[in-house]
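During the reporting period the student researcher (J.K.) took over the structure-prediction task from the postdoctoral fellow and processed the backlog of single-chain submissions. One of the processed entries is reproduced below for the supervisory committee.
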Amino acid sequence: MPDEFRLIPLDEIVEPWIVLRVVNRSSVEYLELRDSLADKGFLNSICVRPSPRKPGKVEVVDGLYRHTAACELRLPAVPAIVKHNLTDEDVLAAQIQANALRPETTPVEYARQIRKIMAAKPETMTLAELSARIHKNPEWIGQQLSLLELVKDAQKAVERGEISLAAAYALARVPRIRQRQFMELAKTTSTKEFLPLVNGFVKKFREGIVRGRLDDLYKDFEPVPHLRHLKEVLAEYRNHQAGGLLVSAAGCKTPVDAWYLALQWVLHLDEPSVNEQRERVLQRQRKAILEREEEESLL
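J.K. obtained the following structure tokens:
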């Protein structure tokens, strides 16, 4: 007999003859599922079979958490796919397969999805509204979103389980330009050892913001080479405005020195360009840290 989909009254559904995964009614997972079910109803149907032990009833094959929440909420009926001709062994095998193959959503994936929700209403959605919508507390949301502040290598390390979540949340507070410096420590030291190191650096960094001495923390700043626009190069070629000043300021003593200085200028690696790029990085970092301080004060 083929599978069928039905809306089945709750009093016609019984629990499975054997439970592979006992429902923990006090777990965050269950409570959030129950709240979501109360708010939005069923997003996925459960799977049942005609009960071989209780005639006229159907027995849960997959979806015990949803069934338990529905019972607690006293819902009248549950959407279900009815599978016929399943043996007890088939049911156990299906439960094992469902639990073994169920993909785990990584914290970074949660963060990306949360950001997508926020992007739909970037100017109007509040943290309280988002919290109510996804049934997660604001602190949890803030922690997940902080993972998007990690450089890509660090995000991948978190997804692979190489960096613990506690260490990842701490690492996300470190400016991106310094995160790789702490990545290996996050992987190789215990959380107890890692957190004081990061907290000490972040404290020093924030003190630098207040005192306007962030430059001391960026002594190893590495500029990113990028070509000047062709119009700017052509203008210099025709008008000879910057070349003389650059050569004089750099103290070039030979034509070769001037040649390499010209290449640096084209790549934005001459001293004025590097200083300008460093200042932009510092300004962005100041803004990001101050915004995070404000967000943390609201949590």
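The committee noted the following: The longest strand covers residues 4-9.
J.K. will present the remaining backlog at the next meeting.
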